[in-house]
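Table S2 (continued). Query chain:
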Amino acid sequence: MNTSASFQGNSSPFDFFSFDLTAPHPTQDADLLKQLSFIPGLKEILMVRQVHALEHATVWVLSESKSVYSPTGEPTKVQVDNERLGGLSTEKGFYLYGEVNISDLRRAVTLARQRLISGEWDLAVHPRCGTNLSVAMLLTAGLAVSVHLLLPFRPIEQLIGLGLAATTAAEIAPDVGFMAQRYLTTAIPFNLAIENIAIARDVWGRQGHLVQVGWQD
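Corresponding output:
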């Protein structure tokens, strides 16, 4: 998806999600892993969530523009999503695709992690995340099936119902997708240590920068 976002001042990309169901705390994943260590693959799942957040935050930091001054003399920071950058998260780190200087990437990854664990949790959410697309597809399919079962089995009613289902799904999918990212598919990288950043190819042979991370309690 090609979506852009902007913000001014010290606000984060998604201020409308500034509420917290539960505020993240540094030992939450480590405590969970200790309590449920018998569950196969739990550590990998927790790592992917944290890596996913770090990937998104890194893209935001790399997209960040320098502060400019408004006519009133007040500094204004405008951030526009760099659509030329993309990423893929794994339990060992994430691939970053697109043209980027490796020195800038090292700085961005370090800064992204620091800002996330310091409280800028909205940096973990990104509008072009695949989670949003998956949520949109599930909502569309679910609403379409519901409409098909609830409305009379006549062509006109079914077509109108499908149109309403698609429109409703398109309206609510972005917000539901952001919620899914924030509370399901990402987590603040309290337990990640950046180990290495180098040019590498993924399993499909695509070249990018691989940001390798390790788990620390």
